[in-house]
Each structure stands twice: as structure tokens, then as C-alpha cells.
Design goal:
Helix content: under 10%
Strand content: 25-35%
Number of helices: 0
Order of helices and strands: EEEEEE
Strand order of the largest sheet: 1-2-3-4
Shape: globular
Largest sheet: 4 strands, antiparallel
Length: 78
């Protein structure tokens, strides 16, 4: 969205919960949590919402633990 709150854009289109977004340092990626696979996992997507990819693919929940990208953008802490 724009800095004044106008121009909202939905980047994910599924009935699951998607939340806790974290921008990469270069602004090209967004990491977020989602339960779209029946379990809270960490996903990453391009800043336009394309190429949404599950990074964790585990049986444990990662809903509350997404923290931040490393300064070089190569790692995500959770």
C-alpha cells in the first residue's frame, strides 16, 4: 500500500491464515507464516506475491516464531 494507506494490494489468495510478514533487506522478498498446508509453516514469496514457497515443510508449528532476515538476506531466523 501507499504510505497514506491507499492502494491496498492483497498478495495471497487462499482461505488459510497468512501473517507475520517480514521484508528482506533488499525489499524483493517477504517471509510469512501460513497454515495453508494444515500446519503453520514459514513461506517466502516475491514482493509482488508470486512464487510462494514453503521453506520449513515440517510437522512442528512455526506460527509465532518468524523473526527476521539476516542483513545479507540469505537466512531467516525463526
Amino acid at each position: 500500500m501507499n504510505s497514506d494507506g491507499s492502494g491496498l494490494t492483497n498478495l495471497t489468495y487462499n482461505p488459510a491464515y497468512d501473517g507475520y510478514p517480514v521484508w528482506s533487506p533488499d525489499g524483493n522478498k517477504i517471509a510469512f507464516t501460513s497454515n495453508r498446508d494444515g500446519n503453520y509453516e514459514i513461506y517466502v514469496m516475491n514482493s509482488d506475491g508470486s512464487e510462494q514457497t514453503n521453506l520449513t515443510k515440517s510437522k512442528g508449528h512455526h506460527r509465532w516464531s518468524l523473526n527476521n532476515y539476516s542483513l545479507d538476506g540469505k537466512m531467516i531466523s525463526f
